[in-house]
Each structure stands twice: as C-alpha cells, then as structure tokens.
Amino acid sequence: MKLTTQELLSCPSFSPVCGGEERPVEGIYCCDLLSLVMGRAKAGDCWVTVMGNVNAVAVATLADAACILLAEGMAFDPAAVERARQQGIALLRTELPVYEAARLVEQLGGGL
C-alpha cells in the first residue's frame, strides 16, 4: 500500500497545518540537525522533527521531502507556514514523541 501526504493529513493523530501538494510518502527520516537532513533525507520522505521554522521548510524543499511532521507538540512559525504554502509542502503536527510519530507513519504506510 502506498501512503500519500493526503492520507497523513487525514490521520486523527496528526493535525494538518498546511495541505501542500499530494505526494507519495516513500520513507521516513527523523532528525533535527538541518545539515544532516540536507545530505541524508531522501526524496519523498516524511521528515519527522521538532524544528518548525522557515529554515526547516527550506531544507525540506532542498531534500524534496514529501512533508514535515512536527512532533512533541511543537508549533510551526507563521513564516514557515507561509513558505510551505508557497513551496507546496504539507505540514502536520502531533503531540506524539518523534519515535512514536515515525512508527505511526510506518504503520499507516504498511511498513513503507
């Protein structure tokens, strides 16, 4: 089963912040160090992080991430939300810890 960003946006455990373009979710990448994300995240990854600023959106664009899932109850900065709208990147948030959020994405995607 292929998971899409729209399916993540409709998951009750995740709150949609910005819809973005519908894209397939190919994998999951968990990291808060932007330089690592730029070099190691793969195109189509759901990036799970606690970084909700405009720089995170820029890195997600460079890495061609499918979406950003903000964990631990963190909030996106207004500038990040505006930039994500411009770039077509889906933004979601959750109260779940990073590990549990990533596991839920994996389960929703049938093991990705």
Automatic annotation (TrEMBL):
SUPFAM superfamilies hit by this protein: HprK N-terminal domain-like
Transmembrane annotation, as ranges: none
Domain DRTGG: 41-107
Top-level taxon of the source organism: Bacteria
Gene3D superfamilies, per database record: HprK N-terminal domain-like
Protein name: DRTGG domain-containing protein
Species name: Bittarella massiliensis
